[in-house]
Automatic annotation (TrEMBL):
One of its GO terms (cellular component) is proton-transporting ATP synthase complex. The gene is atpC. It comes from the Bacteria. Residues 4-84 form the ATP synthase F1 complex delta/epsilon subunit N-terminal domain. This is ATP synthase epsilon chain.
């Protein structure tokens, strides 16, 4: 079976490093799936889940990625993320608290949507929802 190495790095360090048969992510232009022997490519990523089909355990891993860049070259798929968190590491209570704070900020600022604070709250909400969705795909 063909395989590639998948590495996800964030400012906090290495988040993920395993062999895989497929990676799915969301680039700014839309969803992409990467298979072994993919043509070299560099893409900017949005806030979304990255799904990785592992070789060694025949399972999928999920990582919440909050923007960054995906690069594929020589059967290595590297993601340098603004921030990233594996499903098993997500503190779901904290994610719901962040979601609630972001929603409250957006309600408070709803009359002035061009406001920078409103945009920040919207991004925070999107990140919290991404973490909540990814956390539902935890493996025991």
């Amino acid at each position: 079976m063909a395989e590639m190495r998948v590495q996800i790095v964030a400012p906090s360090g290495v988040i993920y490093d395993h062999r895989a048969s497929m990676v799915s992510a969301r680039a700014i232009d839309g969803d992409i799936s990467i298979l072994p022997n993919h043509t070299p490519i560099i893409l900017p990523l949005t806030i979304h889940a990255v799904r990785i089909k592992r070789i060694s355990i025949d399972a999928e891993d999920w990582v919440a990625v909050n923007g960054g860049v995906l690069e594929v070259r020589n059967n290595v798929c590297s993601i340098v993320a603004d921030s990233a968190e594996r499903a098993r590491d997500i503190d779901i209570e904290r994610a719901f608290e962040e979601k609630h704070r972001a929603e409250e900020s957006m309600k408070r600022l709803s009359g002035i949507k061009a406001n920078l604070e409103y945009k920040r709250a919207s991004i925070s909400l999107h990140k919290a929802l991404n973490r909540i969705n990814v956390s539902k795909n935890k493996r025991v």
